[in-house]
């Protein structure tokens, strides 16, 4: 390593900043956030720095830098736009054994300031040795997106129990195993969700019964329409924590690659008239696995509460007092429409949108046809592919014009997406001619006519 990473405590410590411009302002914010007592040397100050000085938050020496300005400081930062001045600051500080950083000039610096992800008391520093600061900032941006703000609460919560856990487990390995179970389980989710009172009670119970079997939980997670980039951050984090994953045929293979590699995977896919596991068996399996102490991820395509039977699954969990969490996903209708260039609502074409399922639990397709055939709306049909001809005929027989635009979107948002455009009259034949298969959604309404103009993701197959 060219630089040794270290965290320095600056609470109440005197620090010197040379330079009062915008760059100096950014450094001043960082030092003040760390609790430093800051002195700024500069003939003039940027407006915000001047306000800080007026409020007494920083001390201001209104002068050009002189070596005599450096006294008993914990560290020094040079942020002027004159390299000769920065060099004098650096030489003077280093001669006195004071750590000094010259902004964007590693050659003159005895230490460098990293890009920072602040989830205090959890703090992450990223550095490229001063060579490529932009790359460090890009890495920081990725970490910011992957590490929830709640990790700070979790770190403070865990710190509060540190001594109790140490007293309960004298063995280091046992202590580590306990913390891993806590920090990767339902208790941690409670803390990050802001429910610290319940988490404290749970923590006390865990400490009192540390030898008991671990408590399980179920996470009902929406996997979105297929593209892994459309997962929520929370979904991705829970996918990395699960012990067991139950997934269906609507979950794209690319999404499963993001699941923790050593997690057990159980396929519970359901297709029309071909259920790998009946829904009742899936519900019972969720209960059993959670009662065994497993962290169970129920991964469902789209959104679990939009034709995903999520309500049925968590009803049984609630009846058995099993902790669960529902993480919404981008529903397949939103994903398919967006990637096909079909706005679900449009001021000139549709003022409402209705989602329906192509068949009920008993296999029928009885729908509220008077409501679905009203003008000025879009209808999205889930699980309607097998009944496409009957559905289109029903739309027509209940008053929709045969020339009403209609589309089917197959494997939406993935590289395998295909969009077939037609009308209520022509769509069934187009589906057969293009061998469209599940997963696919049917969209009916005037907004479909906008797809040739607005379609931006791959080329559509226009069968009108």
Structure description:
Helix 8 runs antiparallel to helix 9 and helix 12 (279-291) packs across helix 13 (310-319). The relative contact order is 0.07. The strands form 5 sheets. A 6-stranded mixed beta sheet has the order 15-16-19-17-18-20, sandwiched between helices. The model is unreliable at 459-464 (pLDDT under 50). 36% of the residues lie in helices and 19% in strands. By secondary structure, it is an alpha/beta fold. The termini are far apart.
In short:
By secondary structure, this protein is an alpha/beta fold.
Question: Strand portion, in percent?
Answer: 15-25%
Low-confidence stretches: 459-464
**Overall residue-averaged pLDDT value:** 90
- Looking across the biggest beta sheet, what order are the strands in? 15-16-19-17-18-20
Computed Rg = 30 Å
How far apart lie the N and C ends?
63 Å
Give the helix/strand class. alpha/beta
Number of helices: 18
Helical coverage, percent range: 25-40%
According to DSSP, the number of beta strands is 20
Mind summarizing the main beta sheet? 6 strands, mixed
What is the quaternary state of this protein? single chain
The gross shape turns out to be globular
């Amino acid at each position: 390593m060219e630089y040794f990473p270290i965290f320095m405590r600056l609470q109440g410590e005197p620090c010197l900043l040379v330079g009062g411009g915008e760059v100096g302002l950014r450094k001043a914010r960082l030092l003040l956030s760390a609790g430093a007592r800051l002195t700024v040397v500069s003939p003039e100050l940027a407006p915000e720095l001047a306000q800080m000085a007026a409020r007494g938050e920083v001390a201001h020496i209104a002068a050009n830098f002189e070596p005599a300005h450096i006294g008993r400081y914990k560290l020094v930062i040079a942020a002027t736009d004159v390299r000769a001045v920065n060099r004098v600051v650096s030489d003077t500080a280093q001669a006195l054994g004071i750590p000094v950083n010259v902004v964007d000039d590693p050659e003159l610096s005895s230490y460098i300031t990293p890009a920072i992800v602040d989830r205090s008391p959890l703090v992450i520093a990223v550095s490229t040795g001063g060579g490529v600061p932009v790359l460090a900032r890009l890495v920081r941006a990725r970490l910011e997106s992957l590490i929830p703000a709640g990790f700070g609460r979790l770190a403070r919560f865990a710190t509060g129990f540190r001594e109790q856990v140490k007293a309960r487990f004298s063995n280091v390995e046992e202590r580590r195993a306990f913390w891993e179970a806590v920090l990767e389980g339902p208790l941690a989710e409670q803390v990050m969700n802001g429910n610290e009172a319940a988490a404290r009670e749970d923590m006390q119970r865990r400490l009192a019964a540390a030898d008991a079997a671990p408590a399980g939980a179920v996470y009902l997670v929406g996997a979105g329409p297929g593209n892994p980039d459309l997962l929520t951050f929370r979904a991705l984090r829970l996918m990395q924590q699960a012990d067991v994953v139950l997934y269906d045929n609507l979950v794209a293979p690319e999404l499963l690659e993001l699941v923790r590699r050593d997690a057990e995977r159980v396929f519970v896919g359901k297709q029309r008239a071909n259920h790998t596991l009946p829904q009742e068996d899936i519900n019972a399996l969720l209960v059993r696995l959670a009662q065994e102490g497993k962290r169970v991820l129920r991964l469902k395509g789209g959104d679990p509460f939009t034709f995903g039977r999520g309500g049925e699954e968590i009803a049984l969990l609630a009846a058995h007092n099993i902790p669960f969490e529902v993480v919404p996903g981008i529903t397949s209708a939103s994903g398919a429409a967006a990637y096909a260039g079909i706005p679900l609502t449009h001021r000139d074409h549709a003022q409402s949108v209705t989602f329906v399922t192509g068949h009920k639990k008993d296999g029928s397709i009885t729908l509220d046809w008077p409501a679905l055939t009203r003008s000025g709306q879009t209808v999205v049909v889930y699980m309607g592919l097998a009944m496409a001809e009957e559905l289109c005929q029903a739309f027509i027989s209940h008053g929709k014009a045969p020339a009403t635009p209609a589309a089917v979107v197959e494997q939406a948002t993935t590289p395998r997406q295909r969009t077939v455009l037609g009308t209520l009259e022509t769509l069934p034949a187009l589906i057969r001619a293009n061998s469209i298969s599940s997963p696919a959604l049917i969209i009916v309404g005037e907004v479909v006519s906008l797809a040739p103009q607005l379609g931006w993701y791959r080329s559509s197959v226009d069968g009108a």
